Amino acid sequence: MQVQTLGIEGAFAFTPPVHRDDRGLFTSPYQDAVFTGARGKTLFPVRDISHNLSARGVLRGIHYTATPPGRAKYVYCPYGRVHDYLVDLRVGSPTFGRWEAAELGGDTCKAVYIPVGVGHAFLSLEDDSMVVYVMSEGYVPENELAVSPLDPALGLPVPEGYELAQSERDKAAPTLAEARERGLLPEYGTCRKTEEALWQ
Fold first, then answer.
1. Angle at alpha carbon of residue 51, lines to 120 and 21, rounded to 5°
2. How far is 123 from 145, CA to CA, in rounded Å?
3. Per-residue pLDDT of the chain (200 residues; tens, 9 = 90+)
4. Which of 137, 163, 185, 199 is deepest in the core (most CB within 10 A)?
């Protein structure tokens, strides 16, 4: 498995070998030994596994969890293709406001590790694109927050040629600056302590 350290502090991408034959393919998007080697920590603490299915042009995010409690995520796309984004929302982080973009899809089975306090978004490039989330904490609706993926100050590279479809919640999400002014963004030190506690 190939491991890539991303430009957002604490974030990684993992690309597993994909074994293909005339029947289809087989792969293992999460491998504990590789993950442990990259993070220098023990097994990812799984508390929730979820997935969504999106039509072409659906734009989801930028989503993150209030910290505390915070949630780390391991994300991959086993079917279809998405343009995936990570955005550092941790106030005080050395990479605050920085984003990373990559294409995830069923052909490569590439996965990304999203640290506590880092936001996640994606644009579905094909109908029926599925995104799977392996998370360190369960889902609590009132803890889930969003920042606008169309914030011009962030400048996320949204591919052209798609009629964007967003939820009402995502359409109404504040910009990064507005979220910061309202005190909605997580603090870097708190995120680091929360994440470290996951591995004990």
1. 105
2. 18
3. 899 999 999 999 999 989 988 888 888 888 777 877 776 666 668 889 999 999 999 999 999 999 999 999 999 999 999 999 999 999 999 999 999 999 999 989 999 999 999 999 999 999 999 999 999 999 999 999 999 999 999 999 999 999 999 999 999 999 999 999 999 999 999 999 998 888 76
4. 185
Q: What is the CATH number of the domain that holds 44?
A: 2.60.120.10
Q: Which of the residues 30, 63, 64, 83 is marked catalytic?
A: 63
**92 burial type by CB count under 10 A (0-12 exposed, 13-18 middle, 19+ buried):** middle
Question: Has 133 been annotated as catalytic?
Answer: yes
Could you tell me the end-to-end alpha-carbon distance of the chain, in angstroms, rounded to an integer?
25
Q: Which domain holds residue 177?
A: 2-198
Q: How many domains does the chain have?
A: 1
Catalytic site residue from 64, 74, 76, 133:
133
- CA dist 51 and 65 (Å) reads 17
- What amino acid is encoded at 47 in this protein? R
